Amino acid sequence: MSKPLKDKAKEEMQDWQVMFAEWANEAPEGPLKRFYQAGMIAPETALRDTPLLALDLETTGLDPSKDEIISLGLIPLNHQIIRCQGAQYWMAKPERSLNAESVTIHEITHSELAEAPPLHAILDDILVALTHQVVVVHCVAIERQFLLEAAMKVYGYPLYFPVIDTMDIERQVTFKPWWKRFGRQPSLRLDACRQRYKLPRYKAHHALTDALSSAELLQAQIAHHMDPNAAISRYWV
Amino acid sequence: MDVELTEILEALCQHAPFNEIADDPQLNDMTKEIEIQYVRAGEWVIAPSALNNTLFFIRSGAIEVLSKENKLIRRMNEGELFGYFSLLRGGKSSQSMRTIEDSLLYRIPARWFLKLYEENDAFSDFFQLAREVRLRVAMDSQSSDVSLMTCPVVSLLRRPPISADISSDILTSAQIMAEHRVSSLLITENDELIGIVTDRDLRTRAVAKGLAYDTSVADIMTRDPIVMDSGDYASEAVLKMMERNVHHIPIVKNGRPIGVVSTGDIIQKESHGSVYLISDIYKQTSIEGLKSISRKMTHTFTHLVVADANTQMIGNAMSHIGTAFVKRLLQLAEEKFGPPPVPYCFIALGSQAREEQTIKTDQDNALILSDKYDKQLHGEYFEALTDWVCRHLDDCGYDLCSGDIMASNPRWRQPLSVWKDNFSEWIQKPKAEALLRLSIFFDLRGIYGDKTLAKQLNQHIRQEAKQHSGFLTFMARNANQRKPPLGFFRQFVLDGEGKQSRTFNLKERGIAPIIDIVRVHALACGSDKLNTLERIEDIDAAGLLPDGRAKDLALALEMIGMVRIRHQKEQIEAGEEPNNHVNPENLSSFEKRHLRDAFHIVSRQQEFIKFRYAGKRS
């Protein structure tokens, strides 16, 4: 676990500041345009100066093209501290009805959701919360894709933002080339990663708890593997 | 939408003091202002002399607390709080905190701590008590001289010893004493202490007898005076003075005298009732007199508890009082039945032998007779003597032993050679059942008569035990018989049925298991100590336990012992018979938490000896 993270090759480095500026021009008038217009921090900003926001979604299934977001939790942090004060949580009523299976996973019931507003009514607020933040998630593929699909549906234009992926960080620090491997690669599930850092076990599948979970995991990863003085471009994807 | 950080709130409410105020709606608002911090092992959370403005809650991991002098004060684990001490003092921290494991900490803003402290009694009570206990720890670690019971004798010394060579005459000796304004003079030969001369000696042995000024000081000095070690407690010096009727005791360190403690020093230091109680015991000439003193014992006991004596000191004082009763009764018995026809040694067993007696104890004793003993000739004398003594000990509050382990039982009144054979039999052919009853005999102290008999027997026991490892296996197994009351879910498990069904027995399930564990190790390393804490020191020195574990045992013993003593004091004050049955509902959450930790230590150490002395499996 003591392996330092590798520097990214130059060509891999993304400049979200430049991309946000481009999208700010292209995006249709409205909340999403304002989101991009607010801009993004420069890639050379140090990790210690980066505003971070841990995020987790619960959905009706795993397919971003078909399934829908039913809850979303956010919790702000920096490289040293998680601030409960800025925590936010939304539930969203899906357009299609919930299937029984996902209900049991999330412990969110039909009646709770029936009273929640639809996603399009809260997406504006979510965009305000995400403004100018680097988002922390465990497994970038799911969260970013679901929000992208949602924005397409609501605003007709994609939502995209820089992410620090705790799963990807864990993959890099636990990676061993095949000739050094013995048996299986270590698990990259959130709970398994947390246990490697002696973090407490939480009940999974509540968006806010899971956001807190990945926020704490990032704290541990920063303490063990990451350099707070390094540029954020080294870590974001 | 209303945000609820259930995970955080639930974690807090599993632990004191939050569990007691879990229904306070403010707690949810408080959690919203918590900050979470992950700290790697070995880093400062509150650095030395740093200001602190946060109440810390250990969500996972462990912290150590260090004093200003960088000495380890204690360790804290999951669910414990720290930093409040400095919050109550405007942020200044006298202690520093460092992680010893990777830790996840909740930082609760000072504002919330002070608000709850102000508004909620259950909340502030928790910190009040924690503060008291911590003060006690801080006091102990400084060996402060608040009372005779807790200060080492060395703290009474006011100057280096004044001494004269053995070749001096009486006049020179008196002149030295006058010059230095001291009431005693150490007499040395080749720089070694061989005697002491006091004001009283000059008066009664020189002047009153009309000795010439040039008489050698050797003629009036007391040879080989009683000395004490610099590490002994001041109270022991007092006890010794009372017992031996001396007013000066030289204190030695590594064999060299470093000063003299006089009764004057002691009186200046203010003293407690127990020492006077002992001198009273020796003045009594009748059973009635002794009985009336025994009725004051509860008072002495509560006095000691109130005076903040630790369990070691209280055990020591109560044992010395118990021993004084035995000795005085034997002196009276010898007046009544005549001098003993052959030498004997009256021995204390169990807690009295370990000097760990508490207020309510049965008598456990026995008699070692010289091998010159002839039953035909001497049997009657010792039967009468021991019957009389045990019966009157009962009158003085030391109940007859329910297991009949008393000197009045002919089975436990034997010549030395028979005792040795008994022990050889027990050790060489151990039987688990029998040893369970006999373990008390492995804490054996001669308290009256020819103490060399007890010494010889103890030596015999140590030699035999060391040579027969199978015996230790049995003792280790027996030490695992009584389990601390820790349930599967880290809850307390309660003992028994009926009236005491809501309680558990602190002695049986906490103190006795520790004593048993320590006895096994002590026998294994051939320690000649009897007191459990002294045994722990020997065990630690012998390296039988991993680093820090010996200290853990001592702490667990002190913690459980303290709860027991406070419980007994409360019972006495409520006019009840003191016992060892504690109702967990009457414990503060602080006591519960620490008891639970202590029981965990006991439990782990029981596991450890099982393997350490596993023996050969058949």
From TrEMBL, chain A:
SMART domains associated with the record: EXOIII (SM00479)
GO biological process entries: DNA metabolic process
Statement: the UniProt record of this protein carries the keyword Nuclease: yes
One annotated Gene Ontology cellular component of this protein: cytosol
Molecular function GO terms recorded: 3'-5' exonuclease activity; nucleic acid binding
Domain Exonuclease: 51-227
SUPFAM superfamilies per UniProt: Ribonuclease H-like (SSF53098)
Keyword Hydrolase on entry: yes
Keywords: Exonuclease, Hydrolase, Nuclease
NCBIfam families per UniProt: PRK09146.1
UniProt name for this protein: 3'-5' exonuclease
UniProtKB/TrEMBL annotation, chain B:
Domain Cyclic nucleotide-binding: 18-116
GO MF annotations in UniProt: [protein-PII] uridylyltransferase activity
Protein name: Cyclic nucleotide-binding/CBS domain-containing protein
Coiled coil: none
Domain of life: Bacteria
Keyword terms, alphabetized: CBS domain, Repeat
Species, as recorded: Marinomonas profundi
Pfam families hit by this protein: CBS (PF00571), cNMP_binding (PF00027), DUF294 (PF03445), DUF294_C (PF10335)
Residue intervals of the CBS domain: 157-215, 221-277
